[in-house]
From TrEMBL:
Listed PROSITE patterns: D_2_HYDROXYACID_DH_1, D_2_HYDROXYACID_DH_3
D-isomer specific 2-hydroxyacid dehydrogenase NAD-binding domain residues: 110-296
Record flagged with keyword NAD: yes
Name of the protein described by the UniProt record: 2-hydroxyacid dehydrogenase
EC supergroup of this enzyme: oxidoreductase
EC number(s) given by UniProt: 1.1.1.28
Keyword NADP attached: no
Domain D-isomer specific 2-hydroxyacid dehydrogenase catalytic: 8-325
């Protein structure tokens, strides 16, 4: 089967090519799937996409006309895919339902510690041989409260690290995770968690019900000196509202690995361009805000697992098998 993989990073290419070798013919391209780039998929029965691909109705229609009948997304999230249109067009869609939760949880903690201890500012200073400590005062997290919104595999991994720091644990989710309660986590409602936690980390999927989960009201419920970390999906946070609260001088630090308007920005080099996104530009000006480019998952372990799962999804599609990874099922081989 001929496969076109969109949005492949330089570090990913050898992993993808090696994993597909001897099984399917794969062509990797750096460009992301958009309405403009969709026509290059013509003639490829299957494509593989990243989380920032545009898989709306117009793109799916172009793919279908070009002969594509299978999409293997290299991520767990699928909020960028119009599944109803894909099903109507007869395009099977599969995702990666699992990869290392430690990659994201550890990175969330990296963001939390970096903003708490002012690591970016300290590094910039010492490069200029400025060794003052003014403005670098952090605080112990031991004995303070970590609030975990979403206690699935990643949230659990984050909570285990918090437990290692000696933090009190609060959790919010539709169902309780026994592994988290065993750590001493107390489940509570969102309002209580936001008002109590010193560190809040988001680990829920982006769904209509969770869009702007952290809105202006939620932000104002948080402590003035709280730390907020989002390594899940950008749409969980109302960024305009966040900027408004930051302008009021609130929060000890904010660490964001995702941004709600990141498509067309993240994973690309925009260093020689004028950024047209005023909200992102303003966000970058706050010294206690750290923004990274959706890299929490980006470890050899996690990317390797993602690639392996993608190969299995394509192989299962070719064999007409249905697995838990398929959001729009593979065609029945008997049909």
């Amino acid at each position: 089967m001929d496969i076109l993989a969109f949005g492949v990073q330089a570090d990913e290419r050898p992993l993808i090519e090696k994993a597909f070798a001897g099984l399917h013919d794969v062509r990797c391209v750096e460009v992301f799937l958009t309405e403009d780039t969709a026509p290059i998929a013509a003639g490829h029965e299957a494509i593989s996409t990243s989380v920032n691909a545009d898989l709306g109705a117009a793109v799916l229609q172009t793919l279908a006309v070009g002969g594509t009948s299978m999409i293997a997304q290299r991520s767990t999230g699928f909020n960028n895919i119009d599944l109803a249109v894909a099903e109507r067009l007869g395009i099977s869609v599969a995702r990666v339902s699992y990869y290392s939760p430690y990659s994201v949880a550890e990175f969330a903690w990296t963001l939390a510690m970096a903003v708490n201890r002012r690591i970016v500012r300290a590094s910039a200073r010492t490069r200029d041989f400025d060794f003052r400590l003014d403005g670098l005062l952090g605080r112990d997290l031991h004995g303070r409260t970590a609030g975990v919104l979403g206690t699935g595999k990643i949230g659990e991994a984050f909570a285990r690290i918090a437990h290692g720091f000696g933090m009190r644990l609060l959790g919010w989710d539709l169902t309780e995770n026994p592994a988290c309660t065993a750590l001493g986590m107390t489940y509570t409602d969102k309002d209580e968690l936001l008002a109590t936690a010193d560190l809040i980390s988001l680990h829920v999927p982006l769904l209509p019900a969770t869009h702007h989960l952290i809105d202006r009201e939620a932000l104002r419920a948080m402590k003035d000196d709280a730390i907020l970390v989002n390594s899940s999906r950008g749409g969980l946070v109302d960024t305009d509202a966040l900027v408004g609260e930051l302008r009021r001088g609130r929060f000890t630090g904010v660490g964001l690995d995702v941004y709600e308007a990141e498509a067309g920005l993240f994973f690309l080099d925009k260093s020689l361009e004028a950024i047209q996104d005023d909200t992102l530009a303003r966000l970058m000006t706050f010294p206690h805000v750290l923004v990274t480019s959706h890299q929490a998952y980006y470890t050899k372990d996690a990317v390797g697992q993602i690639v392996e799962a993608t190969v299995r999804n394509v192989t299962d599609y070719a064999a007409g098998r249905r697995t838990e990874n398929f959001l729009v099922p593979a065609a029945d081989p008997a049909s």
